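MOLECULE: protein
FOLLOWS: sequence and fold
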Amino acid sequence: MKKSLICGAGLGLGALAVSYRRSYKQKGTFREFHGIFAAMEPADAELYASLIREPMEMPERPVASLFVIDYVEVGPWPMTRYQEGTVALRCKYGGEEGWHIKTMPVTKWVPCKGGQMLGFPKYIADDIPLRETEDGWLGEVRHQGRTMLSLEYTRGDMRKLEPWEDELMAGGATRLEEPIFLFVPPDKGSRFQKVTVERVIPDQWTMEDGMVRISIDESEPWAGLFPPGTEAPGRFQRFSGGTNLVPKKLA
């Protein structure tokens, strides 16, 4: 009797694993989200360079990008809806430009641990609210009594863009189409890898351009990149489709 129970449990777990892989491959992990995106040149070039560790190199043009996102539909279970903040720096490796993530607080345990295994520097924040305001949207990362990151998006009044900004906004950066370079364990490990996005269901994006006021808590090592009151071109965007993250070891 005991043996049959164990066998039954094993078959149940096996079926669950097959169902998980099928859902992952057919529907993707990230299926619907919305959030604020902003990008700007850093205020302190030396600080920026100090945050780009070898074997990464400085890009042709240093750019910092920031997100606050609400992942409304993710899967398969145990992945459930969660929120996330991000500070990323443009970098180069092997002649290819992409992004290096400096921080990525989230609101749930499963995406935190799963992301750390890929090299994303995630931790569980106390709260990451993203709410609509009269003029746009406000996204914040709150942790231990501090607002670590605040993105205040105002719709419809984006200033005239520089040519490089126009190219960045029109390119794949805002749609997460560019590679991400990470260390495993996050930011400290000796293993270095590239993570790219695999699309299993075609994307649908809606985007509204505007300006984003950026605030970073002074305790963050990269706070000097964003002086108080910094405003940068940005957008509020909505995504539906199906994507997965694919890691590839580089060193």
